[in-house]
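Researcher: I'm comparing several assemblies side by side, and this is the next one on my list. It has 221 residues spread over two chains. Same procedure as the others: predict the full complex and return the structure.
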Amino acid sequence: VQLVQSGGEVKKPGASVNVSCKASGYTFITYGITWVRQGPGQGLEWMGWISPYMNNTKYAQKFQGRVTMTTETATSTAYMELRSLRSDDTAVYYCAKGIEYSSSWGQGTLVTVSS
Amino acid sequence: SYELTQPPSVSVSPGQTASITCSGDKLGDTYVCWYQQRPGQSPVLVIYQDTKRPSGIPERFSGSNSDNTATLTISGTQAMDEADYYCQAWDSTSAIFGGGTKLTVL
């Protein structure tokens, strides 16, 4: 199992970022994808999940209206878009396989929000 | 909102047993999992559904969950176990992480 994420991004406040997560080594549609972020020197923060099979999502209340999670089953890729970025969105963003618990994680994508 | 509380730090001598707690209201009524995160690395699942170890996780890692407290126990702690540990549980349909515990092996 491998989850490979897109490279780091630098964005200005108010912009949007789209992080991709390409899965391999398992049947993509049979497991959900969870997104978690970690601010500098901070703990883990759950953002939500998406089920590629049912194409349904659950977002943390904190991100409702600002985040969209999608999947592309043809390429076994998950995407997470975060809009209206603020400086406190600067963090490493992780995708992970599984919803109830996550048995495999991507390498993380550093998103830096700075003017 | 629901909260999970972990001690910020725990210290243990090599070969001894380390216990890391995670407290929350009626936590024993839901499943807890634990992640290990070494500096600069992605988290690794070490315990799921309170007590189960994923393939490849050493037997020295064990978990329990009862009443308001879940515990991750590392028996015969080794230097390589030095890391941050996070508990995770579910509050209805949203997942929550504890604040994390830095385990130092002295």
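Model: For your comparison table: The mean pLDDT of chain A is 97.
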